[in-house]
Amino acid sequence: MEPIQGYIGYELIQAFRAHHLRAEKELGLLGLRPSQELILLQLWEQEGLSQSLLAERMKVEQSTMSVMLRRMEKAGFIERRQDLQDARISRIYLTQKGRELESRIRAIWEELEHQTLAGLTMAEQVLLRRLLQQVRTNLL
C-alpha cells in the first residue's frame, strides 16, 4: 500500500492548506476570515443578493452562510435589509467599510496568485488550471 503522501489528494490538501494559511494571515490583518472575502467579491459585482443565492453561489450550506454573514455584519462590512417585495427574504448590501476593502483584497489575491504560480511557465499555469477544473468536475 502506498504511503498517504503518495496520493494526489494529499498534495491537493497540502497545497490548499498552504494557500489558506497565507490568505488567513493577510485577510486577518483586515479583520476578515478566509472565504469572507469571497462574499465581498460577490457583492462588489452585485449588491442586494439574498442569503440563499450567496450560499448557492459559494456552494455552502445556508447555516454556514448565516454564520459568515452574522460575523461580517457584526464587523461592519455588510448589512442586511428586508426585501421590499417579500419580507421573508433578507438582501445583503455592503457598508462603506466593506466597499473600502475592495482594492486591498484584490491586491491580496493578486499577490497570492503570484506566489502560487511562481516558477511555473505560462503553459504550465494554463495546464494547471485545466487540470484543477477537471479534478473538481470529477469530484462533483
Automatic annotation (TrEMBL):
PANTHER family: TRANSCRIPTIONAL REGULATOR, MARR, TRANSCRIPTIONAL REPRESSOR OF EMRAB OPERON. This is HTH marR-type domain-containing protein. It comes from the Bacteria. InterPro entries: HTH_MarR-typ, WH-like_DNA-bd_sf, WH_DNA-bd_sf. The keyword DNA-binding applies. GO terms for molecular function: DNA binding; DNA-binding transcription factor activity. The lineage of its organism: Bacteria, Bacillati, Chloroflexota, Ktedonobacteria, Ktedonobacterales. SUPFAM superfamilies: Winged helix' DNA-binding domain (SSF46785). Residues 5-137 form the HTH marR-type domain. Keywords: DNA-binding, Transcription, Transcription regulation. It holds the Pfam family MarR.
